[in-house]
Amino acid sequence: MSANIRFMPFPPEAIFEILADADRYAGWVVGARASTETDPRWPEPGSSFHHQQGVGPVHLTDTTTVTAVEPPSRIEMEARVRPVVVAQVALTIAPAAGGSLVRMEETIAGGMAKPFAALLDPLVHHRNARGLRRLEMLAAEIAGTPVGSAT
Prior knowledge:
Helix content: 25-40%
Order of helices and strands: EHHEEEEEEH
Strand content: 35-45%
Largest sheet: 7 strands, antiparallel
Number of domains: 1
CATH superfamily: START domain
CATH topology: Alpha-D-Glucose-1,6-Bisphosphate, Chain A, domain 4
CATH class: Alpha Beta
Number of helices: 3
Shape: globular
């Protein structure tokens, strides 16, 4: 399992607002291209959206489904990019002085990548560190805060 933690100078509600908007998924998830066909119940448990994931000209379309949610402090999802990977992803948002601590945990739970999960963990960790930076930059953009002051 890969785990990343990042301080963000925004309240938990502001961070969760982004996570609760499936259309913003491609704005912070590294490798995501677009979100489509979002269940209007998103982010309720069992709701899903379709997304494209890939690098360069190669991409796959699959779904991400909420498995648990506690606004504004936690969301758990199953992200699929089959046949390559099925991942369990949890984001926890805790209030901290001047902002929030955001923890992202990801476990490769299935797909062709599962036998190589331990070897892929450093890559997943790096990808998720970039994703959390992008999440913070998106929060800064929404808040109208200069990006340099939100990192």
